[in-house]
Amino acid sequence: MTALPGAVLAVGDELLLGDIVNGNAAWLGAALAGCGVQVVHSACVGDDLGRLGVAVRRAMEDASVVVLTGGLGPTVDDLTREAVAAVAGVPLDRRPELETRLRQRVSAAGQVLEDLPRAVWKQADLPRGATALDNPVGTAPGFRIEIDGRLVFALPGPPHEMQAVVRAHVLEELAARSGSRLTTRTLRCAGVGEATVAERVEAAVELPPGVTLAYLAGEGIVRVRLTTADDPAVLAPALAAARRALGADVWGDDDDTQAAVVGSLLRQAGHTVATAESLTGGLVGAAFCATPGISDVYRGGLIVYATDSKQSLAGVDPQILAEHGAVSAQTARSLAAGAREVLAADWGVATTGVAGPDPQEGKPVGTVHVAVAGPPGTWDLALRLPGDRERVRNRTVTAALDLLRRCLQHPDAPPYALG
Amino acid sequence: MTALPGAVLAVGDELLLGDIVNGNAAWLGAALAGCGVQVVHSACVGDDLGRLGVAVRRAMEDASVVVLTGGLGPTVDDLTREAVAAVAGVPLDRRPELETRLRQRVSAAGQVLEDLPRAVWKQADLPRGATALDNPVGTAPGFRIEIDGRLVFALPGPPHEMQAVVRAHVLEELAARSGSRLTTRTLRCAGVGEATVAERVEAAVELPPGVTLAYLAGEGIVRVRLTTADDPAVLAPALAAARRALGADVWGDDDDTQAAVVGSLLRQAGHTVATAESLTGGLVGAAFCATPGISDVYRGGLIVYATDSKQSLAGVDPQILAEHGAVSAQTARSLAAGAREVLAADWGVATTGVAGPDPQEGKPVGTVHVAVAGPPGTWDLALRLPGDRERVRNRTVTAALDLLRRCLQHPDAPPYALG
To answer: B380: closest CA among B362, B399, B366, B395?
Structure first.
């Protein structure tokens, strides 16, 4: 695998102070890898002309492609243009075409030009020799310049602007320059641990030369990733073997989300779903609603946080609550059935459990029951999840959506091969 | 403000590839600032001995305190010990006391020593002259070593382990060494833009010498931050003046969350709340349920995603839906009243709107109505929110919780001074 060495520099005091998390670096790391640029250097730099210059020079020592994000705005703290120009040894020029474009954007936003601080116009300046990269979703354009044989891209800092400029102006050129386009295929699994996934894949998959294999685990999901810089076709047999070895534990491919996969399965069946949530408090519903176009299959849900609301809203038999408690398989099953009935949906999915920090009904933190009710019957799953309140809740969402997915895909078999 | 210059190095190929986001850097940036160390250099480094050495040397050029995270585990890819030892020019020594501790941990975890790969024992190696930093929540200890007058800390990579070691072994020493402890006070505002906040604060607040002021905006929340390295008492008058200037737009202090603040206000009033959500699909409920101990005031909610569920679950008059549409102030008000009634709560809070990507009922993406119904009456707020589906939904949650907060704090006045 031959890849160009790349560097990512995220600019802004707020990154160093920890006011915001540097999500741009992760996004760029993955996006650049896809077009044959391997990030070997990634740094945050404050809003300081001297430090910015040092950072760009160091990045150019390590990499032939340097991508900066941030520092292109209109304030005195925005110094990326100045720093790159200084490193390149060229002046900044006001570009009339950028000035015109800026004027249009300002007017379109209903602002009055005369009211704007003079500094706004620095967004029309570029280092001499640089090419402007139009920003389809914001005012500050990016730019591209070659310095000492290195290709330097300066991109806006807001993630959606940065991503839009990269997609429109950066990826194609980098793929052409690296001459290699990394192809990555991912299988997404749930209901199974990373060690088991690795064991099964390694027993079944013979990796062709030039293909690498990685496992990534988090929030109850294990990803199996195959990567090659060669002909993408070499991945197909390995991917198929891994998929066979993992069987029903695979719920999706590549960028799939659980809610979107479940949504497609429901749509194929002409079915709808409703939710009833206790410890997740709406997160399962929110996962569905994060998916554009889900309204044809997701009907809605009940958040049954107070114990009496489990009875009043979802119709859980008070005797079940008295005998087994709110945190029980019986309550989860009854909630799933209640959601289905109250919302007139084909399927109901429910969660109940102890998110912490304190035990409840004598049950320890991490005790969770999820259940699914649908035309073929009702299933439930008892879990003991590690971690704090947030992790327990997130893993519960994963488990609930995965149980529903298994019931939709394998309605005639128990959803988990127990034992 | 005199602060020691600090550097943060996060170690691991997975950071460069974008498989995980570098949350450790942000956490450390804020934690170090608190004890008088200003991070001026922050980088990610891959699992490569040569590059790690270069990165540590560069960090030592820029900073007198260098904090590494990651690369302390038991695999061949874990090279932080080796790299730091090489930079210091010292060998690695096996430490018997760490070996013993590791043995105890392994046995306590129910694992059999003989089954473990030999590489596990490298976690008992430290550069000569280094001090071990006990890891209270994991197997790999951190360490601390002085190199050329720089203080270098190597910490485990998993965030909860890193944080535990920093709290136990790093912060006190750094505060003592820097001789300054930064004190930060934050006011949190909503329902008002960053520019307006800045204008009002700057007209009202005279900053004492040695106090810095910053504004941070995101997801509809603006934070005003005052920082000093001097006596924390100097912040009080400036903070009070800013609070007066911002009036009812301030909803919280420091690390407050909206849901926790609203929860406290409800608890003080002896009141409860319920939710009815369309476009947010459970996010408002999930925000409440993320707060430990909320069950005494949050009753539960309705996720009324399908239009007919707004009627069947929350009792919205079909005539309102027919006349004004599902995305309307009238529907939001009726949903809030419905949530209140169905869940027998004192207050109801509701959301409806167009999250995108497509318009709905002829209303553009970002059209949002939130409403609150309670003992003193019903209020609603119409919003036009920018951004994509995720941003629209998140800002709607902010607006809904803020409207409820205003109604609880100022039941006799309209919640927003309009115009």
So the answer is: B399
Q: Residue A284's closest CA among A301, A307, A272, A296? A: A301
Å between A212 CA and nearest CA of chain B: 14
DSSP one-letter string for B188-250? EEESS-HHHHHHHHHHH--PPTTEEEEEEEETTEEEEEEEESS-GGGHHHHHHHHHHHHGGGE
DSSP state at residue B36: T
Residue A12, Ramachandran bin (φ over 0: left; ψ between -120 and 50: alpha; else beta): left
Please give the ipTM for the structure prediction. Answer: 0.89
Alpha carbon distance A2, A4 (integer Å): 7
Q: Among the listed ranges A273-287, B36-50, B405-419, which one has the minimum average pLDDT value?
A: B405-419
Cα B398 to Cα B179: distance, rounded to the nearest angstrom: 39
Chain B residues whose CB is inside 8 A of the A357 CB are 292
Which residue in B30, B281, B388 is closest to A286 by CB distance? Answer: B281
> Residues 341-380, chain B: which have Cβ within 8 Å of A?
342-344, 355-358
Question: In the structure, how many helices (H) and strands (E) does chain A have?
Answer: 15, 17
A-chain residues within 8 Å CB-CB of B30? 17-19
**pLDDT tens, position by position, A143-171:** 999 999 999 999 999 999 999 999 999 99
A-B C-beta contacts closer than 8 Å? 226
pLDDT digits (tens, 9 = 90+) for A345-374: 999 999 999 998 899 999 999 999 999 999
Q: Average pLDDT over chain A, rounded to whole?
A: 93
Overall pTM > 0.80: yes
The CA distance from B196 to the nearest CA of chain A, in Å, is 15
State the Cα–Cα distance between residues B264 and A349, nearest whole angstrom.
Answer: 31
Summarize pLDDT for B158-189 with one digit per residue, the tens. Answer: 998 999 999 999 999 999 999 887 888 999 99
Distance of alpha carbon A357 from the chain centroid:
27
Interval B309-358: pLDDT, tens = 999 999 999 999 999 999 999 999 999 999 999 999 999 999 999 998 89
Establish if B275 touches chain A: CB-CB under 8 angstroms: yes
Question: ∠A218-A224-A229 over CA atoms, to 5°?
Answer: 125
The pLDDT, as a whole number, for residue A419 is 28
A277 touches A285 (CB < 8 A): yes
Query: What are the distances in angstroms from CA A398 to CA A93, A192, A226, A262, A268?
Result: 52, 12, 23, 12, 22
Chain B interface includes A56 (CB < 8 A)? no
Q: Which of A292, A299, A309 has the CB atom closest to B343's CB atom?
A: A309
Query: What does the alpha-carbon distance between residue B395 and residue B218 come to, in Å, rounded to a whole number?
Result: 9
Question: What are B65's two structure tokens?
Answer: 């305190």
Q: How many whole angstroms separate alpha carbon A295 and alpha carbon A162?
A: 30
Residue A49 near chain B (CB below 8 Å): no
Percent share of chain B, pLDDT over 70: 96
Check pLDDT > 70 for residue B18: yes
- Tell me the nearest-neighbour CA distance from A257 into chain B, angstroms: 15
Contact at 8 Å (CB) between B245 and B204? yes
Asked if B334 and B316 touch (Cβ cutoff 8 Å), the reply is yes
Cα separation, A101 vs A95, whole angstroms: 10
Q: What pLDDT is attached to residue A248?
A: 93
Question: Average pLDDT, stretch A178-189?
Answer: 90
CB contact A280 to B (< 8 Å): yes
